[in-house]
Structure prediction request, 177 residues.
Amino acid sequence: MSSLNQTLFLFIHNFAGRSVFLDDLGIFFAKHLPYLMVVGFLVLVGYEDGWRKKFYLFCEGAIAVMLARGILTEIIRFFYHLERPFSFYNFTPLISESAWSFPSGHMTWFFALSLTVWYANRKWGWWFFGLSAVMGIARIYTGIHWPLDILGGAAIGLLSAWFVHWLLRKSRTALYS
Prediction:
């Protein structure tokens, strides 16, 4: 493990336990924000014109998330076992988490979703990217991920969503023309 990864983790996580308000905020962003983002995605799907465009956007997002979180993350974790920071440093994290640390499943999921949203609506997409980044920092703050877990998860999510978007280009062209 790189010392930069550890140093950055300790810098961010060092703020935990100092303020009940900050801890509650970190827990909210790490644990509960994902649910709100899924609801936000479904609202965006609802704003699409016509059932075919709604269905298309929903499917593009679902396929990107399944590829990123359900397939690639699990394959990597099957072969690469990185323990979580709370286990490495032997402390109790602010939220509970199990399984291997790399890559962050939340980041693979929500960066894939963010890029899908960005393809559909740039304004909403930027919000989703920002909220996903905040979620990633909160997951470091709460003690359950290393910074490289977050970056690796984000990269896998972005690549997955890009690949799905590229793969569906012909059906999208037919739908939107």
About this structure: The domain at 3-176 is CATH 1.20.144.10 (Vanadium-containing Chloroperoxidase; domain 1). The first helix runs from residue 3 to 13. The chain is about 80% helix and 0% strand. The chain has one domain: 3-176.
